[in-house]
Amino acid sequence: MADRPLPSSFDDDKEYQETGFQKVARKLREEPLIPLGTGLTCLALYNAWRAMRRGDHAGVQRMFRARIGAQAFTVLAMVAGGAYYGADREKRKELIKLEAQKRAEERNQKWLHELEVRDEEDKKLQAAMRRKRDRLEQKRAEDAEKEAEIKVAGAASENGAAAEQKTKEGDGSGVLGALSGAGGWFGLKKESAEPSKADEEVSKK
Questions:
Q1: Which among 13, 15, 6, 14 has a CA at the least distance from the CA of 111?
Q2: How many domains does the chain have?
Q3: Are 66 and 37 in contact (CB under 8 A)?
Q4: Is 55 within 8 Å of 8 (Cβ atoms)?
Q5: Within a domain: residue 140?
Q6: Are 63 and 47 in contact (CB under 8 A)?
Q7: Per-residue pLDDT band at 204 (split at 50, 70, 90)
Q8: What is the pTM of this model?
């Protein structure tokens, strides 16, 4: 989230993107009498310059009087426009303020919405990473359990082989013991039989 730029609040606002020429054109549309008086003043000055070039002093005086009249008309247009459009300007200022507040609230709502969307995206990403980490840990635990089972099975097979070997050894010693016991028994019988014969011979004598 920190790598991405914050949402801009002035991208679609035309008031902040208005150029100087657009502002002058808007002012001219709002008060057209002022530029008319300015144009008449410039025209009177131009005619006075031409009359001066011709040497027509009466024309020069007439054009200077026309210039003064045009300037007076311009001033009156400014005053009358200010008086006439004063209430409208105040209303317009209030409307501009209300529109500016509305636009600010809309920008704020868009900004908050975009931040919420980014927060949701971050939460989803973190949840996906957490699920991936849990799956990895579960897989490791399963692998560890399998290794433990394999070790236990190996140890059990080794113990079984050792027990079987001991059993075989025990069976062999039992057979040998039985054979030796049998041999001893037969030997004792022979020894016991020989003295009995000797006793018989002594008794006969």
A1: 6
A2: 1
A3: no
A4: no
A5: no
A6: yes
A7: low
A8: 0.38
